[in-house]
Amino acid sequence: TRISELFMHISSLFLLIPPFGFIVVTYGRIGLAVLRIRSAQGRKKAFSTCSSHLVVVSVFYGTIMIMYLRPQEKSISEKDKLISLMYGVLTPMLNPLIYSLRNKDVKGAFWKM
What we know:
The structure is a single chain. The chain is mostly helical. The protein contains four helices and no strands. The longest helix has 34 residues, at 2-35. The chain crosses the membrane at residues 6-25, 46-70, 82-101. Keywords: Cell membrane, Membrane, Receptor, Sensory transduction, Transducer, Transmembrane, Transmembrane helix. It is found in: Cell membrane. Its main location: membrane.
Protein backbone atom coordinates (compact mmCIF):
# COMPACT_ATOMS: atom_id res chain seq x y z
CA THR A 1 0.00 0.00 0.00
CA ARG A 2 2.93 2.34 0.63
CA ILE A 3 4.04 2.18 -3.03
CA SER A 4 0.47 2.73 -4.20
CA GLU A 5 0.15 5.77 -1.92
CA LEU A 6 3.47 7.17 -3.13
CA PHE A 7 2.41 6.69 -6.75
CA MET A 8 -0.87 8.51 -6.05
CA HIS A 9 0.98 11.49 -4.55
CA ILE A 10 3.46 11.71 -7.43
CA SER A 11 0.76 11.40 -10.09
CA SER A 12 -1.36 13.98 -8.25
CA LEU A 13 1.54 16.43 -8.38
CA PHE A 14 1.80 16.05 -12.14
CA LEU A 15 -1.95 16.12 -12.76
CA LEU A 16 -2.98 18.95 -10.41
CA ILE A 17 -0.17 21.48 -10.11
CA PRO A 18 0.51 22.19 -13.83
CA PRO A 19 -3.12 22.99 -14.79
CA PHE A 20 -3.59 25.16 -11.69
CA GLY A 21 -0.26 26.88 -12.33
CA PHE A 22 -1.28 27.49 -15.94
CA ILE A 23 -4.56 29.04 -14.79
CA VAL A 24 -2.76 31.30 -12.29
CA VAL A 25 -0.21 32.45 -14.87
CA THR A 26 -2.95 33.02 -17.45
CA TYR A 27 -4.97 35.09 -15.00
CA GLY A 28 -1.87 37.08 -14.14
CA ARG A 29 -1.49 37.96 -17.81
CA ILE A 30 -5.20 38.73 -18.09
CA GLY A 31 -4.90 40.97 -15.04
CA LEU A 32 -2.08 42.91 -16.68
CA ALA A 33 -4.14 43.30 -19.86
CA VAL A 34 -7.15 44.49 -17.85
CA LEU A 35 -5.02 47.09 -16.09
CA ARG A 36 -4.23 48.56 -19.51
CA ILE A 37 -7.93 49.21 -20.21
CA ARG A 38 -8.47 52.96 -20.15
CA SER A 39 -12.11 53.01 -19.05
CA ALA A 40 -12.73 52.48 -15.32
CA GLN A 41 -16.06 50.81 -16.04
CA GLY A 42 -14.40 48.43 -18.52
CA ARG A 43 -11.74 47.49 -15.95
CA LYS A 44 -14.41 46.92 -13.31
CA LYS A 45 -16.45 44.68 -15.61
CA ALA A 46 -13.38 42.68 -16.68
CA PHE A 47 -12.22 42.20 -13.08
CA SER A 48 -15.74 41.18 -12.07
CA THR A 49 -15.82 38.48 -14.72
CA CYS A 50 -12.32 37.22 -13.93
CA SER A 51 -12.71 37.28 -10.16
CA SER A 52 -15.90 35.22 -10.12
CA HIS A 53 -14.30 32.55 -12.29
CA LEU A 54 -11.10 32.60 -10.26
CA VAL A 55 -13.02 32.06 -7.01
CA VAL A 56 -14.73 28.94 -8.37
CA VAL A 57 -11.50 27.57 -9.85
CA SER A 58 -9.60 28.23 -6.60
CA VAL A 59 -12.21 26.46 -4.47
CA PHE A 60 -12.26 23.55 -6.92
CA TYR A 61 -8.50 23.10 -7.21
CA GLY A 62 -7.84 24.01 -3.58
CA THR A 63 -10.05 21.25 -2.23
CA ILE A 64 -8.68 18.72 -4.74
CA MET A 65 -5.10 19.57 -3.77
CA ILE A 66 -5.91 19.30 -0.08
CA MET A 67 -7.57 15.92 -0.65
CA TYR A 68 -4.88 14.33 -2.81
CA LEU A 69 -1.58 15.98 -1.89
CA ARG A 70 -1.60 15.59 1.87
CA PRO A 71 -0.55 12.41 3.65
CA GLN A 72 -3.37 9.91 4.03
CA GLU A 73 -4.61 8.94 7.46
CA LYS A 74 -5.87 5.51 8.48
CA SER A 75 -9.35 6.76 9.38
CA ILE A 76 -11.62 9.39 7.88
CA SER A 77 -11.74 12.52 10.02
CA GLU A 78 -14.37 15.25 10.19
CA LYS A 79 -11.99 17.49 8.25
CA ASP A 80 -11.89 14.95 5.39
CA LYS A 81 -15.67 14.88 5.29
CA LEU A 82 -15.83 18.68 5.17
CA ILE A 83 -13.27 18.87 2.35
CA SER A 84 -15.15 16.22 0.37
CA LEU A 85 -18.38 18.14 0.90
CA MET A 86 -16.77 21.38 -0.33
CA TYR A 87 -15.44 19.62 -3.42
CA GLY A 88 -18.59 17.72 -4.26
CA VAL A 89 -21.31 20.16 -3.22
CA LEU A 90 -20.01 23.68 -2.63
CA THR A 91 -18.22 24.17 -5.96
CA PRO A 92 -21.20 23.10 -8.13
CA MET A 93 -23.53 25.24 -5.97
CA LEU A 94 -21.25 28.29 -6.11
CA ASN A 95 -20.97 28.27 -9.89
CA PRO A 96 -24.57 29.26 -10.75
CA LEU A 97 -24.79 31.56 -7.72
CA ILE A 98 -21.68 33.53 -8.64
CA TYR A 99 -22.56 33.82 -12.30
CA SER A 100 -26.21 34.73 -11.63
CA LEU A 101 -25.14 37.50 -9.23
CA ARG A 102 -23.58 39.22 -12.21
CA ASN A 103 -27.09 39.75 -13.61
CA LYS A 104 -28.48 43.18 -12.63
CA ASP A 105 -32.02 41.88 -11.95
CA VAL A 106 -30.78 39.07 -9.74
CA LYS A 107 -28.43 41.45 -7.92
CA GLY A 108 -31.31 43.87 -7.29
CA ALA A 109 -33.57 41.12 -5.93
CA PHE A 110 -30.72 39.84 -3.74
CA TRP A 111 -30.10 43.26 -2.16
CA LYS A 112 -33.86 43.82 -1.62
CA MET A 113 -34.03 40.51 0.21
